[in-house]
Amino acid sequence: MAQADIGLIGLGVMGSNLALNIAEKDHAIAVYNRTTSKTGIFFESAGELRERVLPCNSLEELVAAIRPPRPIILMVSAGPAVDEEIARLRKLLSENDIIIDAGNANFHDTVRRFHELEGSGLTFIGMGVSGGEEGARHGPSIMVGGTKQSYERVEGVLNDIAAKYEGEPCCAWLGTDGAGHFVKTIHNGIEYADMQMIAEIYGIFRDGLGMEAKEIAPVFAGWNRGRLNSYLIEITAEVLAADDPKTGQPMVDMILDSAGQKGTGRWSVIEAQQMGVPATAIEAAVAFRGLSAMKAEREAAEKAYGKLALEKRGTVSHDDLELALFAGKIGAYAQGFAVMTAASREFNWSLPMGTIAKIWRAGCIIRSQFLGRITDAFERADDLDNLFMAPSFVEMMKEAHPALRRIVAWAAAAGLPAPALSSALAYFDGYRQGRGTANLIQGQRDFFGAHGFERIDQAGESHGPWGSHG
Ligand code: NAP
Predict the structure, then answer these.
(1) 190 and 171 part of one domain
(2) Which of 126, 162, 264, 459 is the most buried (most CB within 10 A)?
């Protein structure tokens, strides 16, 4: 085989699948893994694709196997492993070679790495890849940050391996340094909210309406044919329909109610808070993963307060639940896009919102028909401050928010937690309220701390008539 077009380090779940995807798209790829025995196993498993795979047992071998200028993808565990690999590669690479971190990096690390490599002759790309194992193998959504020139050198390969939506690759350059990893982080934050809201609706079916998993599954399958059509709704129906091979019980009933998390949801919330942008539905989703992990405490509290009794408390319609989930989803996406809008200003990225929605339409975990509507909204007005203000979304929200209100109220009365749905509703109600209640907060702040306030009838700082208290 002649020299490879591209290299990849890290043959774990994501790396091995991405390498096969690249080889399948007719690009020769050189691969290396720290534990070299895995490289051999990977090569053996590559079947016909072996003719386009060059297994390497050292970084020196890897570098020599790639045609310069060399693009090398790092698909190793996020964190120190990335810095260690960059340090090793710096000694071996030459002018114009490109190091691409395709893991789930914290974008602050990506910004740092990008600037550390500036002036070294090497360039750095921070690339968010979504779609899990299946996406990596057959077409992920790819969010790229780095210089436009370095992107152009790898654009061909990335477009070939990315998911396609109506023929268009779900891959784009989104801005410099950490832009790609930031957008991937917010993608995951939105994913947390999407999943939490679906779980809340499942909880209403299970604990509020007393339905079995097998009865709930077809409802989600039906919704997947309507406005909620999405990968997450599709897999929800499949998860609910599956049986446990060991016990014959519904699989979902045998799974411990304690959810894991790796950090991207939390990073979304931290960045939103840093910029003062409300992302309450995402925050609620992250917080509830934390609460889910407190299994022993929750069981003790259930004993202390008593188990909720499923009693006849009137019912809710499936149509209302569907519409409520749709309204909540709009709220969560409005928050996610608002965080990206603020970050775009804060970090000088000029993030292209319409393009982001476009490349999320296929390949990634939150892929959905709904993202097509967001794409249209931003294509009509790319300076949109909030999705709630896009004319098409005003219409959708007007139709859907009364259902969200009824479901949140019903869940609260029944004692069923709906933190993400209710946060989305409160956000919407706060956002649409021309005169809120922060006037009182300003009065209180001035009372105890002489912080001053602005009057509605006069510019400049004023103080209240309360004298010196506090
Ligand atoms: P994984 O299966 O655990 O594989 C980790 C890889 O990193 C292995 O090849 C491992 O090599 C290598 N590695 C770990 N520490 C290293 C070090 N200090 N030096 C060199 N190599 C090191 O992980 P994964 O699921 O493929 O994830 C890889 C990256 O993709 C992570 O950043 C993850 O967050 C991100 N990601 C994952 C998914 C997903 O669905 N799994 C989706 C999107 C993004 P050894 O074989 O030698 O241990």
Answers:
(1) no
(2) 126
